[in-house]
Amino acid sequence: MGQKIVGCKWVFKKKEGAPDTDSVRYKARLVAKDYSQTEGVDFNEVFSPVIKHTSIRVLFAMVAHFNLELEQLDVKTAFLHGELDEQIFMHQPEGFIVEGKEDHVCRLKKSLYGLKQSPRQWYLRFDTFMFEHGYSRNKYDSCVYHKKLNDGFFVYLLLYVDDMLIAAKDMSEINELKSQLKHEFEMKNLGATKKILGMEIHRNRREGSLFLSQEKYIKKVLERFGMLDAKPVKTLLAAHFRLSADLSPQTEEEEQYMSCVPYASVVGSIMYAMVCTRPNISHTVSVVSRYMDKPGKVH
């Protein structure tokens, strides 16, 4: 009695498969409406770390240099594995309302997608699992786990929410860790890593090289903002471009025009490419980012 009830809804999504496959999946997911949660009642701590892109690049460099095996796993419905500390009640989901008990609600025993604390509860559950199996957490990145083997080599696991990268010298060590994970969680084995966080991975083990590409992502960005047919240039920010705050809209007409330009979205999209695979555009992105508040036509 007197408990606040959290709402829920169904979310439908089409998810593309890995490169060179046609495994497109259609997913239906029950999601809680977190806006109806109250801090201090329905949740307390919500922070959950994610892997740094620097750590991913370091692992890729080690994989190429030491010729390590690199495999990828995906946790199915990861957030459903988290244990809730709070007492949360939720409305019955659409399509699953019990006849004759329409006024009843569901008490959540485990976390659900959409709850504010779900990412944190999943991370805490996974972190406990890794410690129980002899792995240590990197002190510079909380989503990097490692375990030293008898032969002096290491097994590395990198976690990005529900995506995992596992690297080791011997495939048997990776298979052992996979087996342990599958025993605890429902996993999908994606095999040799081909794509992670929108980055396509091209590896030539004979040459000892590993390349990252975001070609598809960048084409999607160009298409989204109507620039597929834009003229390419070699110089990112030519010397004659002198950007300043003085170029911001000065009249009401200019402000109205710029209100229809998705400047922040463009910069944010390019910034993600910069962080992942294109550090060469860092300076240019830094310059155009200064005018996010009030960009003008020249910006």
TrEMBL record:
Residues 3-235 form the Reverse transcriptase Ty1/copia-type domain. InterPro entries: DNA/RNA_pol_sf, RVT_2. It comes from the Eukaryota. Pfam families: RVT_2. PANTHER family: AMIDOHYDROLASE 2 FAMILY PROTEIN (PTHR43383:SF2), NODULIN 6 (PTHR43383). This is Reverse transcriptase Ty1/copia-type domain-containing protein.
